[in-house]
Amino acid sequence: MADGPPHVGTRWTWPRSLVLALGLGVLLSLPSLRVGLMLDDLMHRMVINGSTQALGDWGPLSLYEFVGGPGSMPERLRESGLLPWWASDSLLVRFFRPIPSALLSLDAWLFRDAALPAHLHSLAWFVALVVLVGWLHQRLLPAPVATLATVLYAVAGAHVLPVAWLAARHPLVSALLGLLALAAHLRAREDAWKPGRVLAPLALAGALLSGEAAVGAVLLLGAYEVFGRRESWRQTSKHLAPYFVLSLVYVLFYVSQGYGARGSSGYLNPVAAPWAFLAVFIQRVFILLSELVVATPSDITSSAPPLQPLVATLGLVVTLGAWWMSRVVQPWLPERDQAALRWLIPGGILATLPGAVGIVGGRVLMVPLVAGSALMSVLILRGWQAAREPERLRVPAFILQSAVVVLVLGHFGLSPLFRVGMALALGHVADEQWRVAREAPPCDGTLVLVASSDPSVSQYVPAAMSLKGRAPRGFRLLSGAPHDHVLERVSPEAIDLVVQGSPRKQGFWEVVNRESAPPVGTKLKLGDLRVSVLESSESGFLRARFDFGHVLESGDFCFVTWSDNGLKRIELPPPGQHLALPHSRGPAGL
Fold first, then answer.
1. Backbone torsion region of residue 56, taken as left when φ is above 0, otherwise alpha when ψ lies between -120 and 50, otherwise beta
2. I need a surface site. Which of 179, 434, 459, 476 has the fewest CB within 10 A?
3. 271: burial class by Cβ within 10 Å (0-12, 13-18, 19+)?
4. β-sheet bridge partners, residue 557
5. Residue 588: its pLDDT value, please?
């Protein structure tokens, strides 16, 4: 049987196919180049310039060790105002990524506050990744299938955050080094290329020092040995031993040194609640599989939790649909297709699993996309070929054609549109953060942000103010609930803050900083501020009292809230009176 479908020419074979993929990928990345420093970029710059030296033990190689390190425990960060008062005592968000940290520190040293050259640096990693993926595809698949697979990889919407957001560059670095390990291993095994035996473990070590995407590369490499080579277990174990040892050392170091994430609803903890973990984990896996199969952007589910069950259900349906299509087109698959998919499919699924433990999004799919784009290419090309031979089909040709059209529309319609739209939206968020920081009311005391559900305002505008030399003496966030609020003045020194609306929804910053809502009776002392939770629900506090220990009009405090696209100063009511504070979405739409 021929390797390719009829009427497919050789014009776009390797390396011309790579030029096509790179051209489309870079074109879709152009809007990302105008995105300014934003979100975690701002915190990273504060660490690099020494602004946070008195608040935590972060350094140029530990930019991703956010909370839970020896000098950055939650209690200390709550006291300083870097964490909100509701942050859990057990909160840990600490990742071992020294290589990406060093690269970001190098950006800051070379380019200062200029974002464009740093984005070009990220784009270079993306280009190198596409080149490597293209090499893998052309090695594993027939020419037309390999061409389409690499193009699908290059245009995927999953790349938008790693390319557009400097702090999210680490998946590109880790995936490139992890896939370089896979490529060197393939050459060592299939071509007897001796340098590959050394290069592959070294590349994997670099990947593990760059981020968690390396775990997916290990799983993909393991799938090649188990499902692709199909040798004796003794031979398989022998060839996987170096990677197993490296991975074991990495895991032991990671755990023993206190890295990982817990105490947050955004990151799953299988030990604390195994059944709840399993339910959410499975849901997140199918959300990611939905992106791999039909390119539904998983990033939107993080900021819109009600969509998660719907997208997960869609993920289950389209995954079953992809399995059905693979069975239908089986007679049209040449041996080369079958040999590649034999290990790419299980490897891609396994590589998807680690990304479901944290906050889901396309950035965790850099490695699984290698397999996903290969499978989608096979289904599109072989499916269309099979539909043109209805006499051999076991199903009506129009059903198979419709399935192919759905795949094409998803990957060449929805995915590129999302990628461009998301990049433009991120540019807007970055611009708005700096604008709000410039226009915020001046404050020589403690800036008290009463209510803002958008962390691009509540967490990162104060960071932008600091970088612009407008930092207040202190900062406090009282509520991140996405609801209307009522501020009740209960004394000259204290206010009650009441969350209105039912059912009570969680704000994104509430999800990230705590595993469960603070119960009634919770009391905290943060300097002179005393916080008491008077009413609460499963989703968050409903009424909390904030006693500042000083008369609120003393000049020590500047009370503001997020309203009308800016931080607006609040005129506090006298004791016994109240003030309504309507909810307003922030620049990130939260």
1. beta
2. 434
3. exposed
4. 446
5. 87
